[in-house]
């Protein structure tokens, strides 16, 4: 298929044919029938290697009350159980848990390793690797990717299950839709406490990601009014973090007309280098972006909250709570173009959906230029702004995301930041790390 697709529409991600994914039991894909005859220690090394060869992005929302998604099934014993005081019960590891009635939920599609259901030996290896086994709720209809965003985010029923996590390997993005019912509780802190309680090593989170809402919630917390166990767990978790990522992904950033975003200096551009955010939770961090992205780093646009503001709030929180990290926390900013608007139909899961998105994006961009051709011609000199020669030399698209060091955004100076949710950054002085989504 790639031979018939123009270069500017050819993604750089590797994709895997169906027979290599094991989706079709009758396929002619490659098999290794003598695997069971290998020495046990070699088989375990192979299982472990397959678990280590990619990272995961766990996007978890914590909700309470009317904003929580409906739970499809609650065991009768749980429904009839009397209410017990918070932080008074223990889990199977013997650790105290919050016992709070928050609903922590995530999307389960492509989340867990197939080794969990391959064989007893493979499952054992996966359970040891993903050592945190915490109760969680999963969206009940993950195969329906064509619902409006509001439906996907808040109203899809959830089913209770178990999340298997490896703190050193997973990035955990947390968001909270509501505070607790009293001043002394906050569901996000309760969940962080419980995540540590279900970790045999007592770590819970090594790599945290926060958007503006999550960071704003944390910044507003008053330490003195919260449950002591939740405070202790949060302080310990933050002090031991390896890294934190500020979310600056948005629905803009590739094709944009500056004046429509209230960014007149941005001009009219199509940023081919800006990664497209994939829907799969699995990704590979490949390091320095290998593409020739340099010139397009001058116009990195996002319509999210200014990530510098999140950085400032974070350090104010550390100061106010007197949290002293045991090691420097690596702060990075994530930039990517989201595709799940106005519905999840545009989500990119595989090579075909990536091609469909890119083609639709190109058609929409051309139509947009033609519909306001006079103004575009005045700004860019011609319509469309890119001809065959420019497109032939354009940077190939990537499905994934960029990570920049927070220093790339500039010094916060007196900690006064423009709160405008539309920003353009000149990041030419910092080459980004590139993460590529696993496409299936």
From TrEMBL:
Superkingdom as given in the UniProt entry: Eukaryota
Domain 2EXR intervals: 32-172
InterPro entries the record matches: 2EXR
PANTHER family attached to this UniProt entry: 2EXR DOMAIN-CONTAINING PROTEIN
UniProt-recorded name of the protein: 2EXR domain-containing protein
